[in-house]
Design brief:
about 220 residues, mainly alpha, Rna Polymerase Sigma Factor, Chain: A, 2 domains, two-stranded antiparallel sheet, 9 helices, globular
Length: about 220
């Protein structure tokens, strides 16, 4: 099977043919790098992310969906890697509202409680924070995949700009093909509500994201 949009052999890529992978990297490396560089604005980080994109492609090529092009496959991985990069630097917004308070409200996935703890308690708290961080990363990836599957690329760009890059509603309305700030707020609100719903799926015991299960929480 050859991907008609790119001319690369999926069978050879899935068989880990070195020549085909070298050709793929020659074709897409610079484009992936410049995409990452535009997002993270650091040469070394962009280069590391680009390498990680191709490693992810090698791991994921066996599950390649032929309804998409290889370009979509690679840039989809790149988007996820950029999101992961920024997720490690700041927590994700998960407020139920969509006003100024939401701009300041974040689940502090890196935050530890302020009271003193024993070493064992600190280790448990750190492990819980790591589990929450991984669950939130999976939730965000699932949301991105949903946008991707539906072809809602403009909404995806808005969500990435707001969540991964920390952009504001006004900036998003000016940068993307969105009617106004109110429309951006609506996209953001629905994305957060969907993230909250996905996050609950990773918390069957109700002790990972306690705030999602409090009375009145949506």
């Amino acid at each position: 099977m050859t991907n008609s949009a790119s001319g690369f052999s999926i069978e050879k890529l899935q068989a880990l043919d070195e020549g085909e992978w070298a050709r793929l990297q020659d074709e897409f490396f610079q484009r992936i790098y410049f995409y990452c560089k535009k997002q993270v604005r650091e040469h070394q980080a962009a280069e590391d992310l680009t390498q990680d994109v191709f490693l992810g492609a090698v791991r994921g090529i066996r599950n390649f969906d032929p309804q998409f092009s290889l370009e979509q496959f690679l840039f989809g991985i790149a988007r996820n890697r950029v999101i992961d990069h920024f997720r490690k630097k700041r927590p994700l917004p998960m407020s139920g509202g969509h006003d100024d308070a939401m701009e300041r409200s974040y689940i502090g996935i890196e935050r530890m409680a302020s009271e003193r703890r024993s070493p064992d308690q600190s280790a448990v708290a750190l492990e819980s924070a790591n589990v929450r961080r991984e669950a939130l990363a999976k939730a965000l990836k699932m949301l991105v995949e949903e946008y991707w599957q539906k072809g809602d690329f403009e909404k995806l760009k808005v969500v990435e700009f707001l969540f991964a890059l920390g952009g504001r509603n006004k900036e998003a309305a000016e940068r993307f093909d969105v009617q106004d700030e109110k429309a951006v707020a609506g996209i953001k609100y629905r994305a957060i509500e969907r993230l909250r719903g996905i996050a609950r799926q990773f918390d069957p015991t109700h002790d990972l994201f306690e705030g999602l299960w409090k009375p009145g929480a949506r």
